[in-house]
Amino acid sequence: MTRLRVDGDVRTPREFAFDDLASLPGQIPDVAALVPGRVGGAVRLAAILEAVGPAPEATAATLASTEGDFSATAPLEALGQAIVLYRMGDGPLPEEQGGPIRFLVPNAAECARLGVDRSTNVKFLGRITLGRKR
Question: 116, 61 in Cβ contact below 8 A?
Fold first, then answer.
């Protein structure tokens, strides 16, 4: 079973399994309401961050895929509306949709304004590491 690890400059590093993600506040039952054409259910990144307690000095998030060695780093200020897709109905998000866990920034235009590009929409997300912006 795939888990999402959140670590780095946080009070409580943690791994989230499917049920852990489902139990967080900030659920989005149908992401198509935010991003037409996307499918699945998600939880807001803010709820995940609240659960781990980011350190005050954390200013960036590195998003690492479980496929290959792909990662993307973005300033936390640009990820305020970000979501983590993890479900399709009552089960995990299928691989064909970038699952079982996928990171998505619904408002790409806002991200671009803050210097973040589409590569931040990471498929097969396995880890989020908070740290300082370089």
Answer: no
